[in-house]
Amino acid sequence: MKFKDLPLAKPLLEAIAAKGYEQATPIQQQAIPAVLKGVDILAAAQTGTGKTAAFTLPMLQLLSAGEPAKPNQARSLILTPTRELAAQIQESIEIYGAQLPLKSVVVFGGVKINPQMIKLRRGVDILVATPGRLLDLYSQNAVKFDQLEILVLDEADRMLDMGFIRDIRKIIAFLPKKRQNLMFSATFSDEIRALAKTIVNNPQEIAVSTGKTAANSVEQMMHPVDKKQKPALLVHLIREGDWQQVLVFCRTKHGANKLTKVLEAAGVTAAAIHGNKSQGARTKALADFKAGEVRALVATDIAARGLDIDQLPQVVNFDLPQVAEDYVHRIGRTGRAGADGKAYSLVAADEAKQLFDIERFIQAHLKRDYIQGFVPDHDLPTSRPLQASKVNRSKHRKTSSEVSGNRASTSDRPRTSGRPHTGDRARSGDGARSNTRGRRF
User: How would you classify residue 78: left for phi > 0, otherwise alpha for psi between -120 and 50, otherwise beta?
Assistant: First the structure.
């Protein structure tokens, strides 16, 4: 189905055409008409399937037909787990709503709160926020929700994994009961369904993927290699393939910094993006990468969701993630919107368990490609059968930030007390992490 066949207003169709989009994705085909009808939505869609447009386009249309926002009021709220994803959603809203008389604001921690408060004084049609900063603003009476018409919970599964459940419940408590609710998640896990019962009313369920596979346009392969040879192999791949743009995932912030220095020393322009970087540094690194001024963006799992880079040709797992599901979100940064992409994983022998977990999760063996000059002395064992894992993800999963030892930004992590805080200064952290480790939601 093409966008022109969907019940969207002319200004939105023109904005979509200006971006070069013609064919709507499955999630867009199903969600857009449903949202326009005003019903609640519970949608499961994997990364890279166009779900941001699936809720922002109909939201813009619905809000453009209503009364403008009053001072300090927000007519709609989009909650998202990370700063990068919040900024990406705001960018999409600005692009698609360019011809509409709507105001949108994005707020998150790691930057000064006062400029955000000033923007909210005039009222806002669409507020995009991370939970921690939103609670800060609400506690200071910077924003009210008497006019709220639509609530969107994006990446709901990630919200739970990052320990935002208490903040979400606090936010839901001060929203008006009568509203349209849109909930998007990679999976319909038991935890997601339990949360949905407290938010959505008689929702229309939409499931266009299992969340366990990347887009078909992503070619996946792995290169067995000894751990000490990984940096040299990455430099070799970049040079031999003449890669001008590659997103590289490391497990820890220290590892990302160290690899960035190695790449720079080898003549490959690189920048690191992780929670210990200020928001300004993170924004600049991403902007330079998109502009082609940096060839390699080295990231922790802060970038596994929320980065939408047009035509990103390849992603490299320098370290395999500890949690199999994060592999899908990482490689989902390439091959987006139907474009071709490649995902490479550099795998050492001591990562065999993570490899087998990933293969069981995606129900496929990764193609092994040995590179001449980098054949490992300690080879990987033979892959195991692809029996489906019976382990409940909620009972064994640690968040990426817990695995890497990352601490959350105070403004974007759950709190254990009701004391307000401004989070004016940039703090460490790749998003949020539950400080009640061991509690299962």
Answer: beta
Phi-psi region of 338 (alpha: psi -120 to 50; beta: other; left: phi over 0): left
Structure tokens at 422: 């401004």
Distance CA 433, CA 170 (A): 17
Residue 40, both tokens: 């609640």
- Record the tokens describing residue 68, joined without a space: 């403008």
- The three-point CA angle 210-399-344 to 5° equals 60
Amino acid in position 277: K
DSSP alpha helices (H): ranges in 140-184?
156-161, 165-173
CA-wise closest residue to 398 among 346, 321, 328: 321
Task: Please name which of 413, 408, 404, 405 lies closest in space to residue 430, comparing C-alpha atoms.
Answer: 408
Q: Which two tokens stand for residue 78?
A: 């989009």
What would the DSSP string read from start to end of 13-66?
HHHHHHTT--BPPHHHHHHHHHHHTT--EEEE--TTS-HHHHHHHHHHHHHHTS
Sheet harboring 204-207: ordered strands across?
104-107, 126-129, 76-79, 150-153, 180-185, 41-44, 204-207
pLDDT in tens, 32-47: 999 999 999 999 876 6
Could you confirm whether domain 218-368 is CATH 3.40.50.300? yes
Query: Phi first, then psi: what are they for 224, rounded to 5°?
Result: -65, 135
For 287-318, what is each residue's pLDDT tens digit? 899 888 999 999 987 665 656 676 788 999 99
Strands (E), 238-357: 246-249, 270-273, 296-299, 314-317, 341-347
Superfamily of domain 3-207 in CATH is: P-loop containing nucleotide triphosphate hydrolases (3.40.50.300)
Backbone angles phi, psi at 316, to 5 degrees: -125, 130
Please state the domain extents for the chain: 3-207, 218-368
Three-state secondary-structure class, residue 255: helix
